[in-house]
Amino acid sequence: MLSIRSFFDANYQTPLWFKEKISRRALLKSAAGASAIAALPMKSWSLAPADELEQALKTDPWLTLNAVLDHLLPASDSGPGARDIQALNYLYNVVTLQPTEQDEIDFIFKGVGWLNDFSQSQAGKAFVALELKEKESLLRAISKSRAGENWLNTLLNYIFEAMLSPPVYGGNPEGVGWKWLEHKPGFPLPNKGKRYYELPGQKGIAVKVVEAKGSKKA
Predict the structure, then answer these.
(1) Rounded to an integer, what distance in angstroms lies between the CA atom of residue 145 and that of residue 60?
(2) CB 60 within 8 A of CB 110
(3) Are 161 and 98 in contact (CB under 8 A)?
(4) Is 27 helix (H, G, I), strand (E, B) or coil?
């Protein structure tokens, strides 16, 4: 990944961590997928302090990530959007608090730089400054590359997790995602103090966030 400088770099190859993650999440295609993702403690989520997340949102990579998540799942009359299910809060926890592979974190952040570089080259401004149709056009364009498709799928996977996981893990506040899907989660649901990472021998591993510094240093 060190030599990759854009979504369209011919040297990019789908990394092993991405293949393994997609394979694991294939269970979402089954009828029991929603129940499984809600019941299995696959990671150790924790609510990020509101002021911490608010500060992070003022700069990249989180400013752009928030805009992309909102575009991938906009709020509508038919259902909740990314903000309603707290997808960014969920992703923030994945990156800052959980034992997520560093290669995946790097890919998510580098994708922000690549997207903004592409946006500047096509429209002369950052992604967050684009109009709705311009954002749609750029995301469709990068989705035609392998790296772009992988990056968007990574974010979509976390949107699904935020929507389907128990609220105590950071997303899906008050079960808004379950209500939309008319899904009845398995019981008992974990409470604070009995979440996966709070159980004996299951302490989460803190991962230091390395702030994205543009895509020039890929």
Answers:
(1) 23
(2) no
(3) no
(4) helix
Beta bridge partners of 79: 76
Find all residues with CB under 8 Å of 124, minimum gap 6, and list them: none
SS3 state at 18: helix
Task: Report the length, in residues, of the chain.
Answer: 218
- Which is nearest to 113 in space by CA: 151, 153, 69? 151
- Report the predicted TM-score, pTM, of the whole model to 2 decimal places: 0.76
Q: Return the structure tokens found at 70.
A: 């909102």
Summarised one tens digit per residue, pLDDT across range 157-184 is: 999 988 888 776 777 788 888 888 888 8
Question: Residue 109: which residues within 8 A CB-CB, separation 6 or more?
Answer: 61, 210, 211, 212
φ, ψ of residue 201 to 5 degrees: the values are 80, 5
Cα three-residue angle 27-92-122, rounded to 5 degrees: 90
* Six-digit token string for 191: 């409470």
**Spatial distance between the Cα atoms of 168 and 61, rounded to a whole number of angstroms:** 25
